[in-house]
Amino acid sequence: MNTLGTGTGTHLNLKSMLDDESAKTRVEDGLARTRELEVLERVRGIPEGFVRTYGDVSPGAPRFAGTVLFHADDPDLPWWRVVRADGSLAKADRQRALLLAEGVPFRGGRVDMGRAHIDGDTETV
């Protein structure tokens, strides 16, 4: 039997928990919220003057990153540092102005990804 220890000597039966539709919804909501927080943390970790892609901040689910950023209501979140994989901008002139103010290099209308893109964890930059 699959059980989950609660730390108090009692166990919850995972199968019965997941058979309950409301429990499934709570688990799925919790997982989505965790993924959302991970995306936001990765975006906050992008240093000024650099960019990451939607796929970088949400590996395997770049559209999820776009949805998270669209719904984010944090004026301090540097959303403009997240660009498409080819360096193009989702928010055009507004995003370009913010990136230029930080010194992000461009080639034509796209971010110069060879110079401005940060791969992997930004904590090592």
What features would you describe in this structure?
With 125 residues, the chain is mainly α. It has a single domain, classed as Winged helix-like DNA-binding domain superfamily/Winged helix DNA-binding domain (Arc Repressor Mutant, subunit A, Orthogonal Bundle), CATH 1.10.10.10. The protein is built from six helices and six strands. The protein has helices spanning 14-19, 21-44, 54-57, 62-71, 92-101, 113-116, and strands at residues 3-5, 11-13, 52-53, 82-83, 106-107, 110-111. The strands form three sheets. Strands 1-2 form a two-stranded antiparallel sheet. Strands 3-4 form a two-stranded parallel ribbon. Strand 1 and strand 2 form a beta hairpin. The longest helix has 24 residues, at 21-44. The model is unreliable at 1-6 (pLDDT under 50).
